[in-house]
Amino acid sequence: MEKWGWIYMRVSGVVLVVLIFGHLFVNLMLGEGIHALDFAFVAGKYATPFWQWWDVLMLWLALIHGANGMRTVVNDYVGHQGIRKTLVVVIGLAAALLILLGTLVVFTFDPCNGVFQDGAMWATCHPGS
Question: For the whole model, what pTM was predicted?
Answer without folding.
Answer: 0.83
